[in-house]
Write a structure and sequence with these properties.
0% of the residues lie in helices and 45% in strands. The protein has 104 residues and is an all-beta fold.
């Protein structure tokens, strides 16, 4: 997993990820809300058939991916390559909000 931390300067519009256009690519965008104490998945790990790009809108989340683990802070973004096992858990007291993008 690659983590990109937020820049110190405030910007109104900011590119978080840039994906080179390629033919026959499918892009899926979604939002996840992880409640306090919730773990995704509930047990074990998950993998996807697509590369996963995520941006933490609100809160901090504990993650384990690709043999490394730690807390991903609000305002940070991550990249998890397709097929990489991973999971996350909200150890905080408020919901964590994440925007995710799958690129197949």
């Amino acid at each position: 997993m690659k983590i990109i931390k937020p820049s110190k300067e405030m910007k109104t519009v900011e590119t978080i990820f840039e994906i080179a256009a390629q033919e026959n690519k499918k892009v899926t965008i979604g939002k996840a809300t992880v409640l306090p104490g919730q773990r995704l998945p509930e047990i074990g790990t998950t993998t996807h058939t697509a590369d996963e790009y995520s941006y933490i809108i609100k809160g901090d989340i504990y993650t384990a991916s690709g043999g490394s683990n730690g807390v991903v802070l609000e305002g940070s973004s991550t990249f998890i390559p397709k097929g990489e096992e991973h999971w996350c858990r909200n150890d905080g007291t408020e919901a964590v909000e994440i925007i995710w993008v799958f690129v197949e």
